[in-house]
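Page 42, continued from yesterday. The earlier attempt failed because a stray header line got pasted into the input along with the sequence. Redoing it now with the clean sequence only.
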Amino acid sequence: MFDGRFRAEAERTLKPVGQSLKRTGITADHLTLLGILMALAASVAIGNGALRLGLLLLVLTALPDLLDGAVAKASGTASTRGAFFDSVADRFTDALLFGGVAWYLATTQPGRLAVLPMAVLGASMLISYERAKAEALGFHAKGGLMERAERLIALGIGLLFNQFLVPILWIMLVLTLVTAGQRFAKVWAQATQATPVLASRGTMRTRARTRAQDRRVARSTTRQVRRRTQLRPPR
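This time it went through. Structure tokens are written below.
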């Protein structure tokens, strides 16, 4: 939801910040690495029960993720390599953060509640995979109720009001699964519309190959007839 409504406006707002950071020599890769380190520190803090400190480090994890794109554009270094690195880093930081929450619940809550944040993580990986696979196939799969920005905001609220952490995680799980369903339906509809076009293209290619084979056979037959005619003794 953030990508569709606020991403462009946020990028315009952060453009001057990106220009300023570029002059300091900081690169987008530096910011991505800083975000990973902050996520690691946040997961350790959360796992040890320092939820307020974990919230602060969570904010410090999100800031480099917002700024790395602005710095890359300001310095003219935006590339597919950087986009790949940023995407992998996002998945890794998600795993660190929710792993820290699972660690915290395992030590403070009875039963199997520690599995809950890992379920949220699994569902978030699913929607990330749906987008990656859809874009690889040429389809559009952005959007949904609970994307990464919304998950981080919800997690921050749960860390701030720790008595609501478990209910918030349940809400995150449900909305993340709903988002996965939304993306699946969106890509399914696009792929269904594209299937007749692909089928017709395949039929056209098959017909073209058949005609080419027929022409090759005809040329081969003509050459054989000419050779036999040349070798036939005069009567």
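Notes: The chain has one domain: 2-195.
Reminder to self: strip header lines before submitting.
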